[in-house]
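Okay, any thoughts on this one?
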Amino acid sequence: MANPSLNVISTSPETEGTVAVTEAAAGAIQKYLREHDASESAGIRIGVRGGGCSGLSYFLDAEETPKETDHVIEAYGSRVFIDPKSLLFLQGTTLDYVTGLMEAGFKFLNPKAGKDCGCGESFSM
C-alpha cells in the first residue's frame, strides 16, 4: 500500500528535472534487494555527500522504506529514494548499471558535474 505523504516523482524512467533510472540499473537494484532478502517496499537510496577527491561524492544504500520528505522514483519495478538536498545536485542525472571488461557497477551520468574523478564516484560542480 502506497504512503500518501510520499512524493512520487515519476513512474517513468524519462522525466525531465529528476533522475532517470535505466532498465539495467533497475534490474541491478532488484537483484541486489532480492539477494539481501529485502521487503517488496524496499529500494535504493541515492545521494550526494561532501568528500571524495573532487569535492562531492555519490552514495547508494539499500533502505526498507523512504523517508517522509524523500522523492521516490519508480522505474521498471524498482524504487529509488532521494532526499531533497541531494536531488538539487542530481537533477537531470541518469542512474545506469554498466558491465564491461574493466568495470561493473552503478554509474551516475550527471550533466551538472563540472569535473569527474577517475573513479567515477566523486565530482565537482
The beta strands are 7-10, 20-21, 43-50, 56-63, 71-75, 78-82, 94-99, 104-109, 115-116, 122-124. Residues 14 and 20 are 6 Å apart (CA to CA). The two ends are 38 Å apart (CA to CA). The chain has one domain: 7-112.
